[in-house]
Amino acid sequence: TQSVYTFGGNADHSDPRQKDKTITGGKGANLAEMAGIGLPVPPGFTITTEECVRYLAEGADFSADLRAEVAAALAHIEKAVGKSFGDAADPLLVSVRSGARVSMPGMMDTVLNLGLNSETVEGLASASGDDRFAWDSYRRFIQMYSDVVLGLDHGLFEEALEIAKEDNGYFADTEMTADDWRKVVAEYTKIVEREQGKPFPQDVNEQLWGAIAAVFDSWDSDRAKVYRRLNGIPGDWGTAVNVQAMVFGNMGETSATGVAFTRDPSTGENAYYGEFLVNAQGEDVVAGIRTPQYLTKAAREKAGAQSPSMEEIMPEAYGELARVFDLLETHYKDMQDIEFTVQQGKLWMLQTRSGKRTAKAALRMAVDMVDEGLIDEKTAILRVDPMALDQLLHPTLDPDAPRNVLSKIGLPASPGAASGQIVLDSDKAEKLAEHGIAVILVRVETSPEDIHGMHAARGILTARGGMTSHAAVVARGMGRACVSGASDVSIRLADRTLRIGTTELKEGDIITLDGSTGEVMLGEVPTIEPELAGDFGILMEWADKHRRMKVRTNAETPADCRTARGFGAEGIGLCRTEHMFFDADRILHVRAMILADDEAGRRAALQNLLPAQRADFTEIFQTMAGLPCTIRLLDPPLHEFLPQGDAEFADLADKLGVGEDHLRRRAGELHEFNPMLGHRGCRLGITFPEIYEMQARAIFEAACDVTAEGGDPVVPEVMIPLVATKRELEILRKLVDEVAAQVFAEKGRTLDYLVGTMIELPRAALMAGEIAEEATFFSFGTNDLTQTTLGVSRDDAARFLAPYVEKGIYARDPFVSLDVDGVGQLVSLAVERGRATRPEIKLGICGEHGGDPASIAFCEETGLDYVSASPYRVPIARLAAAQAAL
Ligand code: ADP
Ligand code: MG
Ligand code: MG
Q1: Which terminal residue of the chain has fewer beta carbons within 10 Å of its beta carbon, N or C?
Q2: What interface predicted TM-score (ipTM) does this complex get?
Q3: Does the CB atom of residue 339 touch ligand 1 within 6 A?
Q4: Average pLDDT of the residues of the chain
Q5: Is the CB of 137 inside a 6 Å radius of any atom of ligand 1?
Q6: Whole-number percent of the chain with pLDDT over 70
Q7: Band of pLDDT at residue 287, cut at 50, 70 and 90
Q8: Quick check: CB of 218 below 6 Å from ligand 1?
């Protein structure tokens, strides 16, 4: 098969493999697509991801076939541009760019101006008639190539450049003359020779293959691996390589380079958004070396910026760009993130892709584009990443709270509010976050090496960089609050202190960021709940219209129930009753019950718990107003409720009026070697039926009372945990039925109710056909089902699961995303067998997986009736359920 595809010039873009991102990578596929619709794309070629995979597997060797295909493709560029690679009189220069299936920070940086050496630089100077430009390009090339391909420390080059500027008394790079650059090049060449013990490669083909190898190798770099792990990207995709004729944004005042979005990626507003730099190349914009200028006059005026916008100083190129924007949106039917260069007034497109956006912007664009007739409702639903909604569901700064603002000149790079301790490096941020400490990562600027620290931090503050800087792009993707380019932040790493505005601070001090305004405040500023109307409400309505499964919530307090209902929960899928046992007024009775010597003692203690349990259920039923509520009877091993430490034992002995020794002996008797598989779940109900009796009584009394108040009739769903056999359920169901009958007789009314079970043991899944004879509903407890099927304890898995995921043993953490291949089979089987016995059986999932979009898709396929998720995950589940149904 073909390994190299050409684009631009008169290339043929008809092979579908070329537009397939899995083959040519995102960048390569889109370059071909843009060239195909007639946009100005510098000619080039793409080496497929398949070649990368082969290269990495076969030990870093290039085949003769590949070399031949590359040579032919290079000839295509030469012909299209009318210059030859390595030509001493008028050389073709190229860029070498990585490009995986999805955009991936952490991959190799682009090498620009490749093809320059001590001869061709002279040719470039004479052919362009611009010495300064030629030597500027050459020094850029040496620096980039040395850093990226040769692996030399880029600090050495930066230092040399700083010295050169200082010697001349310059402030900016733009003050450097051709001669100055020539001297810098001489200095750079010396550095390379000294550092690697041999001269900078002069052979342009050696340069090219060196860069291609570096791109392939970067797929397996540590940075790339970290990024892949955090984002669930498989390690076997590989990256493509794009080699493309250079166009030059550094040819004087009529040249420029920039990045832009067809709509505002932060708010979603339908207005062009972007930044550019005159007389600059490539990464200058993103690197934050110079402050970029705005694209449009409106944006410049809104920001109150002085330097003119592109619209004002390059009206023609800007007009062309605007035309391209419209073409791209009509073609891709989505907001595009593009990179462009203007060479002496002519616009060139260097990249386009669907733009990353905040959740707020994603919603607004989806809703707007339906209004504009660009996409339909279903497409709009599919456009919004359910997990991204998380950003909108969390609190923002209370506008009325007092604020001590330290800085407000930073950019609102990624929305949301975050407070935490200042931390100045990423390793430390990660460490503190592991201990549950909220941190704000403060850096001059971030690089791919900071990914783990950014992930660990609540928010990110940088002193340099625009809205498209590394920090901004990555933070938006991760949903972290970010303020970038706050140039009044100065950091002194030596003594771990910093100044923000005029205030001196040190690492560990608390600050608050508002990523929606760019403000930085001292201390922790209070927050308020999010606004869920508007675009959010509209999209959710569409989602509700298109989904089949119901969405319930896992909640056990009235406050959680209210939050979940506000987020659209249609019932409770899991109300854990053990949480109710821990409250201050109850734990004493719970302990008295557990430590009692006999049934009579237990019953007496349970009698004291009954009113509190009944009150809990009453409030929950009132809050849920007739929506279905699944209540799980006591599940955890009893010893979890025991006193901890000497003080608690002494206190309890005192309160109960029994000896401490006696208590300790009883507690010792409850010790279990493996409580997860021990005396818990329905086994408690079998051995201590009085506990479940009390709980059932509390449920039915509350249900009768609430119904009697004239509300919607309550239909409680009583759920028995950890069932393995039909007989267990038969015994406990009878117990629940008896209590219900008693309560109904006492209250003089009957209510509908269900008794069902969790399916959370492999045996229960296998025996689901038989168990369904006793159960009117199944709820898949996929946390325990995953533990018991994999034989992995969730609480101990942290130590080995990350390496397992890294090595691809599990594609994702099976406690986060359901192991569809394994555990999923048990679920499907139980569904099938349960339905065979009882066709109308109600089926749901209540594990953590009920809020995970991939697992929700599985539930849809399997035909479950509902998923149940924690309150903040309810909107995510609603959207994911709709996406799964489409
Ligand atoms: P990244 O994936 O990090 O964005 P790119 O391969 O897109 O890396 O390259 C980064 C920047 O380098 C581009 O935005 C563009 O400004 C510049 N660049 C890449 N190729 C060329 C080229 N052929 N001519 C001019 N500039 C280029
Ligand atoms: Mg790019
Ligand atoms: Mg369980």
Answers
A1: N
A2: 0.96
A3: yes
A4: 92
A5: no
A6: 98
A7: low
A8: no
Ligand 1 atom with minimal separation from the 99 CA? 2
Chain region(s) in the chain for CATH 3.30.470.20:
256-357
Residue 282 CA to ligand 1 centre (angstroms): 5
Ligand nearest the Cα atom of residue 106 = 1
Residue with tokens 């707007």: 368
Q: Specify the pLDDT at position 394.
A: 67
Which residue is catalytic, options 561, 575, 846, 859? 846
Give the residue-averaged pLDDT of 4-22. 96
Does residue 846 have an active-site annotation? yes
* Banded pLDDT at 128 (limits 50, 70, 90): very high
577-714: what fold? TIM Barrel (3.20.20)
**Best of 102, 110, 208 to mutate for ligand 1, by most ligand atoms within 8 A of CB?**
110
Cα separation, 814 vs 804, in Å, equals: 10
Q: Minimal CA–CA distance to 558: which of 541, 533, 583, 538?
A: 583
Query: 112 in ligand 1 pocket by Cβ < 6 Å?
Result: yes
If you ran DSSP here, which 8-state letter would residue 107 be given?
B
Q: Give the ligand whose atoms come closest to the C-alpha of residue 781.
A: 3
- Ligand 1 pocket check for 381: Cβ under 6 Å: no
The pLDDT score that the predictor gives to residue 20 is 96
Pick from 457, 11, 405, 438: which is nearest to 244 by CA?
Answer: 11
What would the pLDDT profile of 84-109 be if each residue is shown by its tens digit?
A: 999 999 999 999 999 999 988 767 77
Give the per-residue pLDDT at 802: 75
In which element (H, E) is residue 136 found? helix 131-148
Pocket test for ligand 1, best of 34, 74, 83, 112 (most atoms within 8 A of CB): 112
Indicate if 470 belongs to the active site.
yes
The pLDDT of residue 877 is 97
Residue 798: pLDDT band (50, 70, 90) is: low
Ligand 1 pocket: which of 290, 339, 348, 469 to mutate (most atoms within 8 A of CB) = 339
Average pLDDT over residues 474-496: 86
Interval 523-563: pLDDT, tens = 999 887 777 778 999 999 999 999 999 999 999 888 889 98
Sequence ranges of the chain with CATH classification 3.50.30.10: 395-528
Q: What average pLDDT score do residues 708-714 get?
A: 87
Residue 531: other Cβ atoms inside 10 A = 10
Q: Is 148 in the pocket of ligand 1 (CB under 6 A)?
A: no
Residues in the chain: 886
Q: Minimal CA–CA distance to 118: which of 248, 207, 44, 212?
A: 207
**Ligand 1, atom 18: closest residue by C-alpha:** 282
CA of 315 to the centre of ligand 1 (A): 23
For CATH 3.20.20.60, the residue range(s) in the chain are: 577-714
CATH topology of domain 256-357: D-amino Acid Aminotransferase; Chain A, domain 1 (3.30.470)
Between 830 and 796, name the one with better pLDDT: 830
Strand partners, 261: 273, 337
Asked if 322 and 316 touch (Cβ cutoff 8 Å), the reply is: no
Residue nearest to atom 12 of ligand 1 (CA): 282
CATH topology of domain 395-528: Glucose Oxidase; domain 1 (3.50.30)
Neighbours of 324 (CB within 10 A): 22
Query: Rounded to an integer, what distance in angstroms lies between the CA atom of residue 680 and that of residue 156?
Result: 63
Spatial separation of the C-alpha atoms in residues 537 and 455, rounded to whole Å: 29
